[in-house]
Design a protein that fits this description.
The structure holds two protein chains of two kinds. By secondary structure, chain A is mostly helical. Chain A is built from four helices and three strands, in the order H-E-H-H-E-E-H. Classes of the chains: A mainly alpha, B mainly alpha. Chains A and B meet through helix 3 of A and helix 3, helix 4 and helix 5 of B.
Chain lengths: 113, 182
C-alpha cells in the first residue's frame, strides 16, 4: 500500500464522502447535500472538489460506481452515476475512526497524569 | 524515427484541436455574456449615469456639500436602477414566449455535451455525471424560485470550472501519450 492509499491519510473531504455513502449508495449531488445537511450547512463541498475526489477514491478502490437507470439529462444527454462504498472503503473509515478514538483516549490518559 | 515523428505530429494536432475547441467554448461564453449585457443592461447603465448626475446636481444646488451629495445620489441612483432593471426583466420574462429550450446556460451545457460525447472520450465517461448534476442543481434552483439571474450566474460559473477541469484532464492525457510515444 502506497502512502497515498493509507486510510490514515484520508483528507476530511474524502472521509466525509465515504461516510456519506457508508449505508446507502448516492449520486454526486446527493452526497453534497448530505454533507451540507449533516454539518448544518457549515461544511460544503463544491462540484469541483467532489468529482475529482470521487475519481481518486475510485482509483484507490474505496468507492465503486454504477450508471443510474434514469433517463439522461435533456440538454446534455449526461447520465446520473451512483456511488457505493467498497469493503476496503469501509475498512478505511473504520481504521481512521479507531485511530481517532485511540488518540482521544491517549489525550485523556495524558491529562490524568 | 519517422514513425515516431508522425505520431508526435498527430498528437500535436490533437492538442491543437482540443485547445481550439476549449477556446471556442470560452469565447462563446464571453460573447453570450457581453450580448446579454448589451441587450438588457445598456439602458440601465445610461439611466444610472443620468440619474446620478441630475440628482447630485440637485442636491448641490440645494446647498448640501458635494461629497455627501454624491454619496447619497450614488445610493439613490443605484437603488432606482435596480428597481428599473427588475421591472424591465419581469415584464420581459412575461412577454417573451419560450422560444428555444437550449439557450443561455442550457445551450452552453448542450454544446459542452456535444463536444465531449464523441463516443470514445475518456473525459465524457469520467465526468458526465458532473455535468448531469450541474444541470439537475440548476433545475432544482429554478424550482425553488431562486432568481433567474442568480441561477444563470451559478450555472455559468460551474460550467466554466467543469470545462477547465475537463480541459486540463484532456491536456494531461495527451501529454502522457506524447511521453509514452517518446
Amino acid at each position: 500500500m502506497s502512502k497515498k492509499d493509507d486510510p490514515l491519510n484520508l483528507t476530511l473531504t474524502e472521509e466525509s464522502i465515504l461516510n456519506a455513502i457508508l449505508f446507502r449508495e448516492r449520486y454526486g449531488l446527493e452526497i453534497m447535500k448530505a454533507i451540507a445537511e449533516a454539518s448544518g450547512g457549515k461544511k460544503k463541498i463544491g462540484f469541483s472538489s467532489l468529482y475529482p475526489n470521487l475519481r481518486k477514491l475510485e482509483q484507490k478502490g474505496f468507492v465503486t460506481s454504477r450508471w443510474g437507470d434514469e433517463t439522461p439529462e435533456e440538454n446534455t444527454g449526461a447520465r446520473r452515476r451512483y456511488y457505493q462504498i467498497t469493503g476496503s472503503g469501509i475498512a478505511a473509515v473504520n481504521q481512521k475512526q479507531e485511530y481517532l478514538r485511540a488518540l482521544q483516549s491517549l489525550t485523556l490518559n495524558t491529562g490524568e497524569l | 524515427m519517422r514513425r515516431g515523428t508522425s505520431n508526435i505530429d498527430r498528437l500535436l494536432q490533437k492538442i491543437y484541436r482540443s485547445s481550439l475547441l476549449l477556446l471556442n467554448i470560452v469565447f462563446k461564453a464571453i460573447a453570450i455574456a457581453l450580448m446579454w449585457l448589451a441587450e438588457y443592461m445598456l439602458t440601465e447603465i445610461i439611466f444610472w449615469f443620468v440619474t446620478l448626475g441630475v440628482f447630485a446636481r440637485l442636491l448641490i444646488t440645494v446647498g448640501i456639500s458635494p461629497s455627501i451629495a454624491y454619496s447619497f445620489s450614488i445610493i439613490f441612483s443605484l437603488s432606482l436602477c435596480a428597481i428599473a432593471a427588475y421591472i424591465s426583466y419581469a415584464s420581459y420574462t412575461k412577454k417573451k414566449p419560450a422560444r428555444n429550450k437550449r439557450q443561455g446556460e442550457a445551450g452552453l451545457a448542450y454544446k459542452i455535451g456535444q463536444n465531449l460525447d464523441d463516443g470514445k472520450s475518456q473525459q465524457w465517461h469520467e465526468y458526465q455525471d458532473w455535468l448531469h448534476d450541474i444541470m439537475l442543481s440548476r433545475r432544482q434552483l429554478l424550482d425553488e424560485q431562486c432568481p433567474r439571474w442568480k441561477v444563470k450566474l451559478i450555472t455559468y460559473r460551474r460550467l466554466g470550472v467543469f470545462c477547465a477541469v475537463v480541459g486540463m484532464s484532456k491536456v494531461r492525457q495527451v501529454a502522457v501519450r506524447i511521453g509514452r510515444s517518446r
